[in-house]
Known about the structure:
The protein is of the alpha/beta class. About 30% of the residues lie in helices and about 20% in strands. The chain has 17 helices and 21 strands. Strands 6, 11, 12, 13, 14, 15, 16, 17 and 18 form a nine-stranded mixed beta sheet that branches. Strands 1, 2, 3, 4, 5, 19, 20 and 21 form an eight-stranded mixed beta sheet that branches. Strand 2 and strand 3 form a beta hairpin. Helix 2 (about 90-100) crosses helix 3 (about 120-125), helix 10 (about 320-335) runs parallel beside helix 11 (about 355-360) and helix 14 packs across helix 15 (about 450-455). The radius of gyration is 24 Å and the shape is globular.
Amino acid sequence: xxxxxxxxxxxxxxxxxxxxxxxxxxxxxxxxxxxxxxxxxxxxxxxxxxxxxxxxxxxxxxxxxxxxxxxxxxxxxxxxxxxxxxxxxxxxxxxxxxxxxxxxxxxxxxxxxxxxxxxxxxxxxxxxxxxxxxxxxxxxxxxxxxxxxxxxxxxxxxxxxxxxxxxxxxxxxxxxxxxxxxxxxxxxxxxxxxxxxxxxxxxxxxxxxxxxxxxxxxxxxxxxxxxxxxxxxxxxxxxxxxxxxxxxxxxxxxxxxxxxxxxxxxxxxxxxxxxxxxxxxxxxxxxxxxxxxxxxxxxxxxxxxxxxxxxxxxxxxxxxxxxxxxxxxxxxxxxxxxxxxxxxxxxxxxxxxxxxxxxxxxxxxxxxxxxxxxxxxxxxxxxxxxxxxxxxxxxxxxxxxxxxxxxxxxxxxxxxxxxxxxxxxxxxxxxxxxxxxxxxxxxxxxxxxxxxxxxxxxxxxxxxxxxxxxxxxxxxxxxxxxxxxxxxxxxxxxxxxxxxxxxxxxxxxxxxxxx
Length: 515
């Protein structure tokens, strides 16, 4: 073998290689040397094999660029590591004893958390008085609809009654992240699970200044224990938009694997509970959706972010909020600010086709959740039409979005979903709910072709991150990020998709997962 054609360190071959640069998957191979793709071509690539070449043969399984989840909230997995499972008892004394024992696992001010409590609130509140001196104790039920806290927690966190949002738990998360070991555990565990799912890159939503986690993540990156490509966007929760933090984070995080992306602003709520801003209101829930966000203050914050040169994401769920958000970007463009795929609208359960077209004309990115139908056990359990009438059938207008010219990128709002490309195709292409209903798909006219779903997880993510040309496709000279599946996802049936496994994940030329 000549010096100009040295053996590859790694060779990945498949009869269904989807490079992202063409419309279909073909029989081909990817040769990798170090962290870089050396060659992509037809056939099995035998000419790249040497005595030390590691070969990953996918057979009929799909091979594509490593996946990028463009909307995760890894901080939201903190309860998975801290919360004591109380679902098995309704005895307040036993629950309190478990919580007291848990307090020994982490130092103050890390909070003591409990989940799944199904007993009475008054009895638990009384039992919580036995918590160790000065420790905050917070407990919620299985649905995170009811919360109990001891006096120390009530004084420190002031969490209001009602459904418990992650934003309400921001001070709890901040105290949790005072334990550097817990930060390492949270991000290390998430990284391993993401690798098992073919995901090599994420955009993580960080409350305020990342709640103190950033120095630990930088240390993990310096040590080489953080191998996931991690971009983070600051969402103001406990303070206004912190442009100084953005500047500092941009300067400090220049590593390609740990970078500051920009800012995310929340707007409306969610349509499922009647807090999303819907143009047609809620015929099935009179009085819902009438309390609108402070759009004037939000537009001012958006203007400050864009004028400072940062990427801006506007979180919108209802079509009314989406219309407002597109108008804001039109005004910014008219004022001379560059508007393109680095700026985004996220969630987008509903969007009017005309507003999608306006967003497409601006070149915006839509961060969508292609697994969303999987949130409901069956078609009968989806409340869209019951709450919204005929407008409910506009849920997840993915085909309309694709035709509008926007750049689609996939997200999960993890831990709402853990990313799954097979589940995404099942929901977005075949339009099936968890149980496989309905047989012909729900609103099939809005189905997104499977190849376009894969693009949203790869090419679309790279465009949104501004890394197209370095990652997101399979081509010589690009970073060697690949996901290898057990089946041909582009041709698999809805039932076959439930059997798919990720057989290998390669990040920067390193096999980080092998089934």
